[in-house]
Amino acid sequence: MKFPSLFSPLKVGPYQLQHRVVMAPLTRMRAEKPSLAPRPLNVEYYAQRATPGGLIIAEASPVVNTGFGSPGIPGIYSEQQIAGWRKVVDAVHAKGGIIFLQLWHVGRVSHSSFQPGGALPVAPSAVAISSEFKAMTAEGKVVEYETPRALETSEIPGVIDAYREGAKNALKAGFDGVEIHGANGYLIEQFLQSRSNLRTDQYGGSIENRVRFLMDVTKAVIEVWGANRVGVRLSPYGIANGSGEADPMPLYSHAIKSLDPLGLAYLHFIEPRSSGAGRAEVNHQNVPSAMVLYRPMWSGVLITAGGFTGETADAAIAAGHADAIAFGRIFISNPDLPRRLRRAYPITPYNRATFYGGEQKGYTDYPAHDEMAQA
Ligand code: FNR
Question: Domains in the chain, ordered, with CATH?
Fold first, then answer.
């Protein structure tokens, strides 16, 4: 028997991938201001990273104007944003690529400076992120997190509707599917985890209740897209943005087993060793492997991310731990990453200083391998 590799084809929902090098969702804070719509620079960046039959998961994009926690993030709730995203999608499609959009609401990882009328950010409960983590204001200043306002039970359907609207807008923009951001300490994970969810209604308390918001959002998005064009991202054992469940196994087992029968396009993990990689260089030791732990509970396509190289990605796929590997940081600095991995070309190191905000530098000016050879 021949084992699958990073370069074996893979069916994801209705799409036939030609390889399994997925571009991970990556916040880059370079949308147009004040519209928060993607602009030509963003089109160029995604087009550089598109390959025939390659899956790109576009950066997390708030579904509503209360869902932001950093400046320059593209949204998916206005006509201008839809039009901007349409250009990104068209450019990726022109190269034969497949592109999903990650739907986002940051919840308590926000600050009143982002909120209409300077209101407090909303969250499952009025619990602030601890002071070892810092918030960013709309002006880019680093400050303490505020204590968010707990959503009333009667407001929750409205938040779920916002995800539904975001999903509809992504459909209008021409995306091939959407990924629900249930990871990294943002709103959905705040509902999942007991440290951020102290609710006593049907959305808090028991594991079943804490998983309810994720399930309601997922079902709402499925109504728009059909299950086989919807993915969900989770980060069990993660510690990003003040998250962390004391005993993740029962919680995430229940969540994954509840999602499994829905027939989603895929489940997508952030490996615990790389939790918080967006904020700092991390390589957490003595942590479990999400793909190894949860693969037996998931019957569909499993994508995972976190510090993979071409070799470790191939090994994970050959071992059956995952079906595809998402690459984040090295996809930033290697626009032609699938080809480089296939040919074992050297990998250009990334520059963390240019991850967030700015213009071309560290965004669209990383050369492809062949351009480097000519230089
Ligand atoms: C991220 N990550 C991330 N995750 C996510 O679900 N949505 C997002 O918008 C972002 N944004 C983001 C920005 C930047 C600059 C980094 C470095 C990371 C996490 C990312 O998708 C990935 O899971 C991690 O980076 C681990 O993979 P690598 O980088 O080790 O391949």
Answer: 10-374 (3.20.20.70)
